Amino acid sequence: MPAQTLWLVPPPLRLSDAPAPAWGHVARLTDDTGLLGFARTAIASREHGYRVQDAARGLLVASREPRPATQVVALAERYLACLVHAQDLDGAFHARLGYDRRWLDEPSTGEPWGHAMWGLGSAAARSTVPWISRAASEAFRLGAHLRSPSPRAMAFAGLGAAEVLRADPRAAAAADLLADAATVVGLPGGDPGWAWPEPELTYANPALAEVVVAAGDLLGDECLLTEGLRMLAWLCRVQDRDGHLSPVPANGLRPADDLCPPNDPGPAEAGRGVTGRGATAEDHPAPGVQRPAEVAATADACATAAAVTGDDRWDAALFQAVAWFLGDNDAGAVMYDPLTGGGYDALTVDGPDRHQGAEAALALLSTLQHARTLAARRPGVTGRALRRPAPLGPGRSRVTGPFGAPT
Fold it and tell me: Across residues 32-60, what is the average pLDDT?
């Protein structure tokens, strides 16, 4: 009798498989100046100094803790102090600080300004520590009158403004900043096969969709909300590979030149690829280097969409982001170190890049916060139960379905 091969099928992932958010590795990268951006394996790399965007993200994630431990409060204080030091009298921000505590650039309204405004707005609105909230509010107000030509800088700043506006609907400066952010980001063109406002997908793509969703919701613009949800739903399909998350790689994605005929099905019927209106899952491009920050951004945007619409179908894409760190990804590799609690810097074609810098550590923490919230809302649910097509429309009405199509 011929020998038989026994195939072991792993059980479906559950939300309970996700570890609790742990701050030990972020604390390892933090000193009395700020958050060191890079690491050699798990050890901080001092020669690269500090990035304002890391301090901003650290403050943001710390501010999301509903009951922060003493360690988390101390970290938030340090990151906030770094941001206040980085801000000039007009509200702009430096980007990089050397380990010798010398600024390496001039203040600007580039992406570091956007990241800083996002972190400050989150701390102003969410921090349970009064002196952190007050100081963050002052710094946010100082920078809220500025604008940037960069869509990503404006998206980040707009998300900070959205946090402030949720806490105080009368915050006029935040409302103006959020509205301007949505305008700079823009809306998709007329091609249903490329439901995106830019000619290619680069980085931080979910944040662009999220700020449009937030603007539509908080400013009472139903059309803007619908378009933002359409952008995010399309992006979720682009990033879906056979049921798991395959985020846009570092080298980006762009549509093929040879689009399908005009009468080809639109994105509600088409597959998940990005090569044209008739693309299928098999057309998804080969994976490149994937950054944990893209995964965390996807989780953020889907959590916002679920909160705004009340549609729990967004939980499927959110769970995909959680599962990416647990090994449900293109390489089948766990993307964090269980001994240090740090996230790995990137997923490459050869497997994880096992350096554990600040960006990856905070991406892991942020995503695990969403996992904790989702588990509390839907206890015992497995990934298999959540894996259904991502929602494609606003989810507020039973009259219209995906992209306004009749249900």
Answer: 97
Cβ atoms of 374 and 322 within 8 Å: the answer is: yes
| Contact partners, residue 337, CB within 8 Å, separation at least 6 | 25, 42, 343, 344, 354, 356
Give the integer Cα–Cα distance in Å for 357 and 46: 11
Count how many Cα atoms sit within 13 Å of the Cα of residue 165 in the half-sphere of its side chain: 24
Closest by alpha carbon to 52, among 103, 122, 15?
103
107 neighbors 126 (Cβ within 8 angstroms): no
How far, in Å, CA of 263 to CA of 255, rounded?
Answer: 18
Integer CA distances (angstroms), 287 to 194, 198, 240, 270, 283, in order: 20, 21, 12, 21, 12
Radius of gyration of the chain (CA): 21
Please give the distance of CA 59 from its chain centroid, rounded to a whole number. 15
| Tens digits of residue pLDDT in 291-334 | 999 999 999 999 999 999 999 999 999 999 999 999 999 999 99
> Which has the closest alpha carbon to 389: 280, 305, 272, 277?
272
| H/E stretch holding 348 | strand 346-348
Give the C-alpha separation, 152 to 4, whole Å. Answer: 55
Give the model's pLDDT for residue 6: 52
Say if residues 245 and 347 touch (Cβ distance below 8 Å): no
| CB-CB contact of 238 with 272 (8 Å) | yes
Cβ proximity of 342 and 352 under 8 Å: no
CA angle 95, 35, 319 (to 5 degrees): 95
Question: How many residues are present in the chain?
Answer: 407
pLDDT at 333: 97
Count Cβ atoms within 10 A of the Cβ of residue 406 and give its class: 0-12 exposed, 13-18 middle, 19 or more buried: exposed
User: If you average pLDDT over residues 354-370, what whole number do you get?
Assistant: 98
Question: Is 288 in contact with 250 (CB distance < 8 Å)?
Answer: yes
Tokens of 102: 């010398």
With 70 as the cut, is the pLDDT of residue 276 above it?
no
**What mean pLDDT do residues 55-63 have?**
98
Q: Reduced to 3 states, what is the DSSP secondary structure of residue 121?
A: helix
Q: Could you tell me where the beta strands, DSSP code E, fall in 156-281?
A: 240-241, 244-245
pTM score, two decimals?
Answer: 0.88
Q: Beta strand 39-40 with 346-348: parallel, antiparallel or unpaired?
A: unpaired
Question: What is the rounded distance in angstroms from the CA atom of residue 375 to the CA atom of residue 154?
Answer: 32
